[in-house]
Amino acid sequence: MGNLINNELVYTVKDRCRVCYTCVRECPVKAIKIINGQAEVILSRCIGCGNCTKVCSQQAKQYIDTTKNIFQYFESKQTVVAMVAPSFPAEFSEIDDYRLFIGMLRKLGFRYVVEVGFGADVVAREYEKVMDDEDAEKTISSDCPAIAYYVRHYHPELTDSLAPIVSPMVAMHRIVNKKYGEDLKTVFIGPCIAKKAESKEVDQVITFSELRAMFEKTGITANQIEPSDFDAPKAGRASIFPITRGKLNAMKKSDHICDENIIVASGRIHFKEAIKEFAEDLNKSQHLELLCCEGCIMGPGMTSKGKIFSKTASIRNYVRLKLQNLDREEWKKEFDTFKDLDYSQQFVPSDRRIETPAIDIITGVLEKMGKIQAEDHLNCGACGYDTCFEHAVAIVEGLAEIEMCLPYTIEKLHNSVKDLNLSNEKLASAQMSLKQSEKLANMGQLSAGIAHELNNPLGIITMYSGILKDEAPVDSPIHKDLELIVEQADRCKKIVGGLLNFARKNQVKLVETNIITFTHHSIDSIIVPENIKIDFHSDMTNPFAFIDNDQWMQVLTNIEKNAIEAMPDGGTLSVNLSESDGDVEFAIADTGVGISKENLDKIFTPFFTTKPIGKGTGLGLPLIYGIVKKHNGQVNVETNDDLSQGPTGTCFRIVIPRQRKV
Length: 662
Ligand code: ADP
Ligand code: MG
What we know:
Number of strands: 17
Shape: rod-shaped
Mean pLDDT: 91
Structural class: alpha/beta
Number of domains: 5
Bound molecules: adenosine-5'-diphosphate, magnesium ion
Number of helices: 21
Low-confidence stretches: none
Radius of gyration: 47 Å
Strand order of the largest sheet: 12-14-15-17-16
């Protein structure tokens, strides 16, 4: 059996899918699941309308190809009947004479070529019977298989309203069997994918696109083809079926406001709306004449996807010509022969609805997407769902993902950009510190070299000038000169000592130390002028931390000396100790002159000093910086040198980890 009921008609070619959600948006029953950024058709929800195959610009949605089955029929010499849908003139409009098209089908291997339009003629009469019966319940047309599936799956309560009439395709199959015998294979050729899963009776269903592929494969074109007409029975007026309102036209009925109780709707939005209203507002008071596509001429099995008006015109022209040439007597004879076959069909409900999840679960998902207030529901449709609520329901049902929400994803991207900027800033600051360290290391190396070379001659100068000074009589002018030499040589020794200190590469020797006592001691070891008040304070509950005692003494005394030198007219030197999260903080503040903005950038640069010659070397802070870094700590400076901005002064804040981390 060639029918594909319960088979996957449409599938995704994963490599081609660019996850644009257009298929989700266009799927009338949301049978497309997005998981891990991949679109997947859910067989149990699909109604085979093929909308997704029409709208996918990447051709990532394909339908099952069954042409090989037909080639097999030909190879095994079976009698094969082509049952051509009445929409064929809209597909093969480039062939001037339709009889060439029939010739091509015969050349391909079809023994008989018949018009499904005749099936439509008899089906139209069946519909007429139902619609003319005033007392009978109103129906939903059932000749479009996607509509029949939709009702059975998604409005199972309306299954009994589906007109209990077979489609023109099945009607034609029964007619062919009656006329040409049952020992043959019927192949429906049309614009529809859903037809592949419509009936167990018809052997095969292929689309016009598939037929074109068969012509191409066998090299059959309209050139040098023997024209040939359709086999009996020839179709009549119902050949107009494939355009919207075609069936009403065939029945000589209309959906005019005052004339009939028939509502016509086609296309994925309107057919759903009509069915919904049929049940609710219309209360089944009108017949529904429905097509899933905008007429069969817009079916997914047509090669060209647009041009609805040109296609309509092709059908009209074909039917007009056909009716002009129709042998009406012959048609009537055939019609009477077949009009009393059984054209009935029963539909059974097959509920595929998913129970709507609990509202609090949906609300939870909406909150995750940042949709808390009513105004957060943008309902932009970018995800493929009409509303944010529907999207959230689909997420709970496992059909969609949060990332499909464009505003949510944009927000997330913004946050990532912010985080990245932050990391960038941190990186830039780390780079700066690295540069500073590198500069210091270079300076250190240079200084160490110079200092080392200078130390010995300086020692000799100091020693001999000292001896000479002691030997010279105090009142001689040489004594004064020698005194100056000794003084300046001492100064040189100090500078060289500082350089050696600064350049010292030795590792830190961390020792557990009582920080409170240690800091007290640092203050005791400097000379504090009388006009300076010392304000010592500690918040530490655990005074112990690991420091290199010698180096840390240099850190504290250097900062304290700087502070005192910044307060020539007196002031307060505050020393504050505190602790937090395994760190120890030293805050050493003065009420001195402060540091100007332009100098603040330079104070850690070796030899930068604002002090007069002989007073400053500019090596204190670079030394401090190096030691603090070796302790895995940080130095920060807060300062104000502008009285109009408040009291002037400077605070050096040093934070180091309490435990050894080096
Ligand atoms: P020096 O003390 O030899 O000048 P430092 O490296 O210790 O070298 O300090 C560099 C410069 O930083 C000082 O000359 C001074 O301009 C400035 N400075 C340091 N500490 C203070 C402070 N507490 N108040 C004002 N200026 C300061
Ligand atoms: Mg100093």
